[in-house]
Specification:
The chain has about 325 residues and is α/β, with parallel strands linked by helices. About 40% of the residues lie in helices and about 20% in strands. It has eleven helices and 13 strands. β12 and β13 form a beta hairpin. The chain binds adenosine-5'-diphosphate. The site of adenosine-5'-diphosphate (ADP) has 19 residues, from α9 and α10.
């Protein structure tokens, strides 16, 4: 059995259906990674979402939604005064989507404080993996997870990551760069350098690496990331294929381009979750990448991050 802990933020999503009418759901990059991991992993494999919510009905709704996907909520901490972050998606008459966010005061920003309060009495060190007992096999976080952590709590986060790694947990990082969440690109690069240095597996998209480091292809991306000694790299580039570089092999796996892309939300996140699930099932990297690309291909032919659960398995068979 594999035990995966994913740290980050789930939000309330309000998606406009018609003028004045919004449909409510829950979403976030790590939320999607958790959902697709659990849907595709073996039944015994476990995923725990490490985040914080409030005491309001939206927070209850999120917990229920996670439980419906059989995501473990034992690391979902309750903030005494804050609530979930929220965003809305509206689509104009040309089909262009625009997003508005209300997340700067969300509960998830303080997850490290709540983690310490919630677990310190049982553990010696405030940020020790003991708070996550049993120690997970894998710990996943993204650039968005990092960006939203209250900056004064980042040292605690790095302490936890470093302790986990020392004890044998695989650290997994996807940069998922969102410029609006960072004060400057220099701040981002400084934090990402720590993240890449800590990572055993990194799953960057070329677009993010172009925006932050100016690299535009797989070769340049590998050259850039070589300085961090990351054991396994899985580099995504939309329909242009996925490049893998690991201790035993390196290859470019082609991706069949999807002609009718409906919505690219969660392309990378669904890829990440399913790649981890297929690897946990014992698939070799190439097979896991091919199957994860197929999942992402299904996801981008649907609106929103999460393909309806009842239809998902059938769509994958098509
Ligand atoms: P990220 O969101 O992390 O930048 P990408 O945009 O590269 O990631 O997309 C993640 C994965 O989704 C790709 O590796 C690919 O498998 C799939 N994908 C994205 N766009 C397309 C497309 N147009 N056709 C087919 N597959 C795609």
């Amino acid at each position: 059995m594999t035990d995966l802990v994913i740290l980050g933020e789930s939000m309330v999503e309000l998606s406009q259906q018609e003028p004045g009418l919004f449909r409510q759901s829950f979403a976030g990059d790590v939320h999607s990674v958790a959902v697709y991991f659990k849907r595709l992993a073996s039944q015994a494999d476990r995923v725990r979402l490490m985040t914080a919510v409030g005491h309001d009905s939206a927070s209850e709704g999120l917990i229920k939604a996670l439980e419906e996907e059989r995501i473990d909520t034992s690391l979902v901490f309750r903030h005494p005064s804050r609530q979930l972050g929220l965003y809305s998606v509206t689509t104009d008459k040309n089909g262009e989507r625009s997003f508005s966010y209300w997340r700067s005061e969300s509960a998830a920003r303080e997850v490290m404080l709540l983690f310490r309060e919630g677990t310190q009495s049982a553990c010696d060190g405030a940020y020790s993996p003991c708070g996550l007992a049993p120690r997970p096999d894998m710990f996943f976080f993204s650039g968005i997870s990092l960006a939203v952590l209250a900056p004064e709590t980042r040292p605690a986060f790095w302490e936890l990551v470093s302790n986990l790694r020392d004890q044998g947990t695989r650290i997994i990082f996807d940069p998922n760069y969102r410029p609006k969440l960072w004060p400057t690109p220099d701040h981002t690069r400084a934090e990402y350098a720590r993240a890449f240095t800590s990572a055993d597996l990194a799953l960057p998209g070329i677009e993010d690496l172009t925006a932050l480091y100016g690299v535009k292809d797989f070769t340049a991306a590998c050259d850039l990331l070589a300085q961090f000694n990351i054991e396994e790299l899985v580099i995504k580039d939309g329909p242009n294929g996925v490049y893998y570089r690991g201790p035993e092999e390196r290859f470019l796996e082609p991706v069949s381009p999807i002609e009718r892309v409906v919505d690219t939300t969660a392309a990378g996140d669904s890829f990440n979750g399913s790649y981890l699930a297929f690897r946990s099932r014992g698939l070799r990297p190439r097979e896991a990448i091919a199957r994860a690309a197929k999942v992402a291909g299904v996801v981008i032919q649907h609106r929103g991050a999460l393909v309806e659960r009842g239809r998902f398995a059938a769509l994958l068979e098509e």
